[in-house]
């Protein structure tokens, strides 16, 4: 199957689904479309709640596209590349509707950032998380503000430093990333749908004002995440990172 970002609106619930055949890793074009879709649905008066999910049943998101990462050969290209996840997170932050995350499987790097930027996140027991960026000589600079906001500095720094380890879904729930963890995808989907339907019975104006409060103090993220993207774009050109990336070719 080819990569895609698709949307569906049913009974005031918008569902956004992204997919990439390489374990739902996200290249620049998919990230750009994902950010655009979130913004458009957030401004759609028919939509009261958004569900964000990925295709397939094993991996929610494997992070950034490794092929694009390896191909970076100048700092500006690097900044643009890492700005992809920044733009998605900022679109989620600015979206006036609650976004429910549906995390069916493992999520790595930028995928952890996307999960953290949802307003309410539900997962299966298979949805372990890992920040692997330090392994290749960079760091989770762009996504760490969203992860820190959701899970706290201690949990974020733990998984950022321990870049080889997957932390299981129950650990992520205890740290605040997931609200609930389910045994199966079927149970997860049922719970997500029921929860979204229930949110649609609430006052949209009240939910909008609550979202503003939840994200208070993040007005500088447009600039902050762009600066973080530039750091990653510079580090990916370092001799250490270039030598490390050669091992993955």
From TrEMBL:
GO molecular function term, any single one: catalytic activity
Domain of life per record: Bacteria
Gene3D superfamilies documented for this protein: 2-enoyl-CoA Hydratase, Chain A, domain 1
Pfam families linked: ECH_1 (PF00378)
Family under the similarity heading: Belongs to the enoyl-CoA hydratase/isomerase family.
PANTHER family noted in UniProt: ENOYL-COA HYDRATASE, POLYKETIDE BIOSYNTHESIS ENOYL-COA HYDRATASE PKSH-RELATED
Name the UniProt record assigns to this protein: Methylglutaconyl-CoA hydratase
């Amino acid at each position: 199957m080819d990569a895609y970002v698709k949307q569906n609106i049913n009974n005031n619930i918008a569902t956004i689904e992204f997919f990439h055949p390489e374990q739902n890793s996200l290249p620049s074009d998919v990230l750009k479309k994902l950010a655009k879709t979130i913004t458009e649905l957030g401004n759609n008066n028919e939509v009261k709640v958004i569900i964000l999910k990925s295709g397939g049943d094993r991996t929610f998101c494997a992070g950034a596209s490794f092929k694009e990462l390896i191909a970076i050969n100048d700092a500006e290209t690097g900044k643009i590349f890492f700005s992809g996840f920044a733009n998605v997170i900022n679109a989620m932050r600015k979206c006036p509707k609650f976004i429910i995350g549906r995390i069916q499987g493992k999520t790595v790097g930028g995928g952890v950032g996307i999960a953290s930027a949802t307003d309410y996140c539900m997962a299966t027991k298979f949805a372990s998380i890992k920040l692997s960026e330090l392994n290749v000589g960079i760091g989770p600079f762009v996504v760490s503000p969203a992860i820190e906001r959701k899970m706290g500095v201690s949990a974020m720094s733990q998984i950022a430093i321990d870049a080889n380890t997957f932390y299981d879904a129950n650990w992520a729930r205890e740290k605040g990333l997931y609200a609930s963890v389910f045994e199966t995808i079927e149970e997860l989907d049922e719970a997500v749908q029921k929860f979204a339907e229930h949110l649609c019975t609430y006052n949209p104006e009240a939910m909008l004002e609550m979202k503003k409060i939840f994200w208070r103090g993040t007005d500088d993220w447009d600039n902050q995440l762009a600066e973080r993207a530039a750091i990653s774009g510079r580090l990916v050109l370092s001799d250490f990172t270039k030598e490390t990336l050669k091992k993955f070719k």
